[in-house]
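quick q for whoever's on today - can somebody do inverse folding on this one?? i tried earlier but teh output was garbage lol. tokens:
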């Protein structure tokens, strides 16, 4: 059986913990940061977890993750 291919876009955007939870970057941090408060910008730097409804779709794209 041939190797499964990893979706390259998903590999750059998501990472999987040892527990199996999928991490993602927070949205709204790439531009228009001058109008956002420092506290809000600081919190946008943190990683978030993907919702459980989307986890299986991402796991399929990252077979060796």
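ok took a stab at it. sequence:
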């Amino acid at each position: 059986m041939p190797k499964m291919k990893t979706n390259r876009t998903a590999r750059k955007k998501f990472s999987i913990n040892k527990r199996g939870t999928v991490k993602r970057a927070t949205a709204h941090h790439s531009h228009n940061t001058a109008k956002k408060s420092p506290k809000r910008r600081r919190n946008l730097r943190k990683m978030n977890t993907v919702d459980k409804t989307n986890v299986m779709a991402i796991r399929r794209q990252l077979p060796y993750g």
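fwiw The chain has one domain: 8-61. also Residues 35 and 41 are 10 Å apart (CA to CA). so keep that in mind when u check it
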